Amino acid sequence: MTIDPPQTFNVKSVAIIGAGPSGIASLHDLSRVTKNGKSLFGERDISNYEREGNLAFPELVAFERNSSVGGVWNKGAFGDNNNDPNLPEIADYSVDLTNAENVYQKISIDTELEKQLADSSVDHPVEVPVTPQISSTIRNQWRSSAAYNGLFTNVTNRYMSFSFDERVGDELKKINSKYKHLPDFQSASDVSDYLEKVVANNNLGKYIRLNTNVERVKKLPSGKWEVVVSLLTEKNGQKVLHWYKQLFDAVIIGNGKTVPIVPNIKNMAKFAEVNKDKVTFKLAKSVQDPSFIRKAKKPLFVGSSVSSVDLIQYAFPRDIENPSIYISRRADASNSSWVTFCSYAKGIVNKPTIEEFLPESNSVRFSDGTVERDFDAVVVCTGYHMFYPFIDKSVVDSSPDVFKFFRYTFSMADPTLALVGNTYAGFFFNRVESQAAALAGVWSNRSKLPSLKEQKQEYENIPKLITPVIDRSFIRPLIALALEGRPHPFTVNKEKSDHIYHVASGGHTVLGLFFKVRNGEVDSRDILSS
């Protein structure tokens, strides 16, 4: 049942799911709230407040399923460390592949394990050996990062940092000039290094439990949230899952988008299997290194989003008078972004959706009736689900508003359940810290949420998040709920006051680089050369 938000919250302990940018931002702002509602923004050493017991949220735990922090930017989970399958490893491809439940595999909590969990804790977990079946299930949970060797950002560097740990001055100049073909941008590894540094600078590592996957989250009659997790370790050469549960007053979902959207295309899996010796077939999520695209004589990209365009760069240079790069798209683009210009560039053949794969002839039939054959690389770039497999069915069934988030952050069914991140829009780092700032303000009772009626009215009339309105429609309404002394992210660094120009200028740089690569002026292998 959905009710009006309480006048006061009694939140002392918070579980944060994920330690990527969303989780790191949440840890920072929640760890820096005093009992009297003061923001300790910008203070790296808060040990005195801890010793005095003067923190509003004394128990913060971020559960990160990988072995290091960073989320999609975690270099320990991308490139050669990407262990995701090329296609979902399922027996029945007649199921609806666009349903995340059918491509994400859960580890079953049987009756015996449930009974043992009753007395479990972080110090006294239940040990379960990892069988081949469990190992396969973990592999099909899409735990790796979608980044790959050679990936670079498409957002300028000043917006790839938090306001509480800005890259400014000489540090910003150094990263801006690191790559001669890509001024003001950086590699995925650079972002990973920055996030690790933020965690170290602000002593956030003590809150993070690595290699720990959240398996289930449910609300108890007591009002507490029960979080069940499994810690993956190795003991005497045998991998072991250490299961336990822990209670919290509030939960932040910060797991991002990791489960790929797999299209329902006839004969797709059979095509990949029959032609495995002559066709490299991958989801974009499982690409470790894009060098195979450069070697391909005739690559096909399913989907026309930014992921597709990012990877297409590695197919050049080649003869653009006789195009051999194909994109299958659902419809012609309706905007004029740099991604659109790239995807329609000379040298690329745009085709409609795929009707079916024809395995025996290594061919593809498109919805316009045309058939193309002899593709030697197929990359499926159809996006990612907003998917929360750990949220128990009892929570989902309790209200139709569970996954409706006021100001993208507070569940309208229960404001002690929050979402940070997981939206498609620019200025990601500054957006997630504004969400964390709002949570700190509301859960510490220094700010109040409007009535449920007002929340729903605002939710139903929320504007589309295009770049020019993100500050007005996303960041400012959240900062309005923040603690006194917690600044707007764009005011900390005055250069960000011209954020629209910076985004437009950055898009021009990325667009220009794409065509330099296409024209052979820059080798795609040298984009990240110094």
Automatic annotation (TrEMBL):
GO molecular function: flavin adenine dinucleotide binding; N,N-dimethylaniline monooxygenase activity; NADP binding
Top-rank taxon, per record: Eukaryota
InterPro entries to which the protein is assigned, alphabetical: FAD/NAD-bd_sf (IPR036188), Flavin_mOase (IPR000960), Flavin_mOase-like (IPR020946), FMO-like (IPR050346)
Keywords: FAD, Flavoprotein, NADP, Oxidoreductase
Presence of keyword NADP: yes
Pfam families assigned to the protein according to its UniProt record, in alphabetical order: FMO-like
PANTHER family: DIMETHYLANILINE MONOOXYGENASE (PTHR23023)
Annotated family: Belongs to the FMO family.
Protein name listed in UniProt: Uncharacterized protein
